[in-house]
Amino acid sequence: MNAALPADLFRPETKSLLRFLTCGSVDDGKSTLIGRLLYDTKLLFDDQVATLASDSRKYGTAGDDLDFALLVDGLAAEREQGITIDVAYRFFATERRKFIVADTPGHEQYTRNMATGASNSDLAVILVDARQGILTQTRRHSFIVSLLGIRHVVLAVNKIDLVDFAQDAFDTIVAEYRALVAGLGFETLQAVPISARHGDNVIAGSDRTPWYEGPSLLRHLETIDVARDAERLPFRLPVQWVNRPNLDFRGFSGTIASGAVAPGDAVIVAPSGRSSRVKAIVTADGDLPRAVAGQSVTLTLTDEVDVSRGDILSAATARPELADQVDAHVIWMAETPLTPGGAYLMKVGTRTVGTSVAALHHKINVTTYGEEPARTLALNEVGSVQFSLRDPIAFDPFDIIPGTGAFILIDRMSNQTVGAGMIRRARRQASNVHWQDLQVSKTARAALNHQKPVVLWFTGVSGAGKSAIAALVEKKLHAAFRHTYVLDGDNVRHGLNKDLGFTDADRVENIRRVAEVAKLFVDAGLITIVSFISPFRAERRFARDLLQEGEFVEIHVDTPLAVAEARDVKGLYSKARAGLIKNFTGIDSPYEPPEAPELRLDGANQTAEELADRVVAYLADNGYLEGPENRDWII
Amino acid sequence: MSALETSLTASSGLPADRLTHLQRLEAESIFIMREVAAEFANPVMLYSIGKDSAVMLHLAVKAFYPSPPPFPLLHIDTGWKFREMIAFRDRMARELGFRLLVHTNAEGAAQNVNPFDHGSSLYTTVMKTDALKQALSLHGFDAAFGGARRDEEKSRAKERIFSFRTANHGWDPKSQRPELWNLFNARVKPGESIRVFPLSNWTELDIWQYILAEHIPIVPLYFAAERPVVWRGGQMIMVDDTRLPLAPGEVPEQRKVRFRTLGCYPLTAAIDSEADTLEAIVREMLVARTSERSGRLIDHDEAASMEKKKREGYF
């Protein structure tokens, strides 16, 4: 690098950013190409070049020349194996652009890594060896980048020196490739004949390929316009964090996924559908008159509407879809295959929601691009999957707005990221349901009752006062014209569960049946009061998981064992102490108190009447005694 | 999607706003910090006092404005930081409104573990790596921001932005989670944690250009000034005070030097420089012919040394 500095040094505001990935088969020369770009754009320092020279002699495969691949093969393991096994990110810059390169592995077993690299790229450089032409790997790489939404591709026909710079070899490969990717939706496709090792057409044109009239690879990367016109899409801001420094300020922080926003714009909160207007776009550098896709901002609204993390602030005129069943393309990334019925967490935007695989429609052969029937999706396989979501989510089809249509799947037990997906469409549209299409649903039944159906799950040791409080709660609700039903431990054991005893297995089954019945009653629109000792967290968790968010209110009647035993209204404690009853909670079987119940009632110091009033007040305060809101808010 | 298509047509007259590369890097870092604040129970920001930390602090202030950043700063004090760095640290924490936690490996300090008698490798393990693990366990932090960049060193080029650590603070390249789009998986079990690198995609030049553009305060040691130095192993080591034992007959020499990177003195070498303004530093950067970490003596210990340190829990 000489001392004559480019003019834009102190004007970083003139430089744009291009993120691209390189993919190719094992020996296509990908690492060599990236090393060459770093070397030729003078991004290497003297000590790095010295290390490279010594490494080239030690590990190199380029004879006496510098082996540029050694610049980029990082981890010790792969240095030994001579292959790239993970996504590595490289950086270089010219006067016009800064580049972030995702260097992704070629082997089939690393498809997931390629997808990872592609997810944050605007362009893909697909390498082929001029001597080999289009390989199975090339077909797969092209499909994956297309699936991940990349619309700009460079076909770099490498090692053109090894076919004597022959134009017909290049033309044959390019023609075959164009035919291959015709259906993959690429907007631009630039083919360049290069020699990564010798530098032909990498930075500058080459006089050894006089028949090639296109730009050099770097020239193309510097000039291509890949902007998705994301500013012209509808405004979307997935809310990350509610910014509340004091009572006078309530802002919603996030990065704009698409579109633009200005003070005064009408917005809605998805999925609730509440509407407001943008008051200000707040940043540490002062309020902005306008903000666009890609900017991280904090919005304040003119109304006090309920907004939390996971919601999407959206243009009021073009709202996202809302659904609790979606179809999506999935790339599976775990050793344990995806199977129908499997339950995961889905993180979409800033929202994380429980989900299960409702159906696996088919898998997609990533080399023939054909659909194939499948029962499972194995590591690195791609499929079309239908998901059921525990709660409706707001989203846009990935093809239109990637920022609100992409998701990852997380295993609940291991916390590993096991899959990545792109939502294609709503399967069952919670959103676009017009009233004439409306089935008689849970919401509809509840609306008639002017209440929100809910399970009030009373738990506590025997004699804590559960049944007495539950009975009073029902009486008060009934007096207020609410529709209720009580499932009581003793009553249920006389009928539905009379075949069950008190072994651990029977106790689990007892609770399972009661939870399923409670779920049916909620579906029927009832306020369902369950009064069971239910000593184990796992079984209460099971019941909670059957229901949607907000439909399960856990009430711990927290009466110390000594107090309950002293009452011993049914004489059970004395029998248990005498050994006449086995597995009695609190005596010879544990009671696991809830860690975070919605309500904790002090059964030792307050009367059942007072406690029942607290339960009713909780229901009123949390909106259970009002009809559900009109959901028909989507255009 | 008819409403959506309508809006596409309706707004197609908008000017195409294009963000610059620094704006995009800033927005990405802010996004990462907000994700951490929202998803973790007890995050902390590791503060090394260097230029990358300075940028990280500045971004944290921006990310949560007008709220103060919702996490404290943690500085691992080896006892071998330049005096100017400690003074600067205290000033920045005070001025920016951060709660500052300082942790030193008391056991190591009691045994006077130092780079001269124990070698840089053992010293780094005890006073940095072990100290960091102690502090993270002590406070039960489930996420810790670090200022590492992917362009610093080869093994860091593959580092995730959310880097998963086991309950023993171990880093295993095989257990790292795929990272797609901006959908970071922040789920950890009790005791496990995530190291978060919001500056992953910044280069050294980006850092300097941003410091210049945003007027971010940095430790004066980055600016060239006359300072007393001695030569050790071909590198210039500044004599900050009597902590540096001089060899018999060794006389410090006054030279106009500055630091490209600030680690522990005396493990950080100075360079000859006339650059005493930010503009001059950036200018010097652009004609520099040695890479930044070559001034860090610990990287030269053995081949693939950074990867080894990372597995052990060093940042």
Describe this structure in words.
The complex is a heterodimer of chains A (635) and B (315). With 635 residues, chain A is of the alpha/beta class. Chain A folds into four domains: 12-223, Rossmann fold, CATH 3.40.50.300; 230-315, Translation factors (Elongation Factor Tu (Ef-tu), domain 3); 322-429, Translation factors (Elongation Factor Tu (Ef-tu), domain 3), CATH 2.40.30; 442-634, P-loop containing nucleotide triphosphate hydrolases (Rossmann fold). Chain A is 26% helix and 28% strand. Chain A contains 16 helices and 27 strands. In chain A, a hairpin with a 3-residue loop joins β11 and β12 (274-282). In chain A, α10 packs across α16. Chain B is 37% helix and 14% strand. Chain B has a six-stranded mixed β-sheet with strand order 3-2-1-4-6-5, with helices on both faces. Residues 1-16 and 298-304 of chain B have low confidence and may be disordered. The interface between A and B is large, with 92 and 79 residues.
State the main characteristics.
heterodimer, A: 635 residues, alpha/beta, Rossmann fold, Elongation Factor Tu (Ef-tu), domain 3, 4 domains, seven-stranded antiparallel β-sheet, six-stranded mixed β-sheet, 16 helices, 27 strands, elongated, disordered N terminus, disordered C terminus, B: 315 residues, four-stranded antiparallel β-sheet, 9 helices, 37% helix, globular
